[in-house]
Design brief:
Layout (H helix, E strand, L loop, with lengths): L1 E7 L5 H14 L4 E5 L12 H8 L3 E5 L4 E5 L5 H5 L6 E5 L8 E6 L12 E6 L13 E3 L3 H11 L1 E2 L6
Helix pairs in contact: 1-4
């Protein structure tokens, strides 16, 4: 499994971009797993059976729906432990700004300064057209340039075993 992240600040189009990336890679025949890093913990709705299980002290609660499954761990787990047995070609992570995972950095309509950049950022994703110097590093791509973004992901995604996540 190869790993790549879509990072940036809130409201810059990360989720929309992840949807487009997953659709494109899936259309190309790849199997995709996704993970979202969040500032907020997942909480079952009060009064539901799974909420009651968690409140009773279950360390792991599994909700089996007619068409899906959700696994809730009481403690934060490493992504590598959660996806270890998942048969996917790519793991696309939304978030994880501070990680060493190769990533595109979504800026939406805002600007980014050189101080915001580090070597894990493979491209900056903007909502607006920009004249780009071909030698600009990292390159700036429009958020609708899914072909260009997927090309970067295929080139720069790294094996899950190389990460400590």
């Amino acid at each position: 499994m190869r790993v790549f992240a879509v990072s940036g600040y809130s409201g810059t189009g990360k989720t929309t971009l992840v949807e487009s990336i997953v659709t494109r890679l899936s259309d190309e025949g790849f199997t995709i797993a996704t993970a979202k890093s969040s500032k907020h913990d997942y909480e079952d709705q009060e009064g539901t059976d799974s909420y009651r299980h968690v409140q009773a002290g279950a360390k792991i609660t599994i909700l089996l729906g007619p068409n899906s499954s959700v696994v809730h761990h009481r403690a934060r787990k490493k992504i590598s432990a959660l996806v270890r047995r998942t048969d996917a070609d790519f793991l696309i992570i939304e978030g994880m700004k501070e990680s060493e995972i190769p990533k595109v950095w979504c800026v939406g309509g805002s600007k980014i300064t050189p101080e915001d950049l580090n070597e894990s950022i493979k491209a900056i994703i903007s909502w607006f057209e920009k004249s780009v110097d071909k030698d600009e590093t990292p390159p700036v791509l429009k958020s609708t340039d899914i072909d260009g973004i997927v090309k970067i992901i295929k080139r720069d995604a790294i094996n899950l075993q190389q990460l400590s996540i």
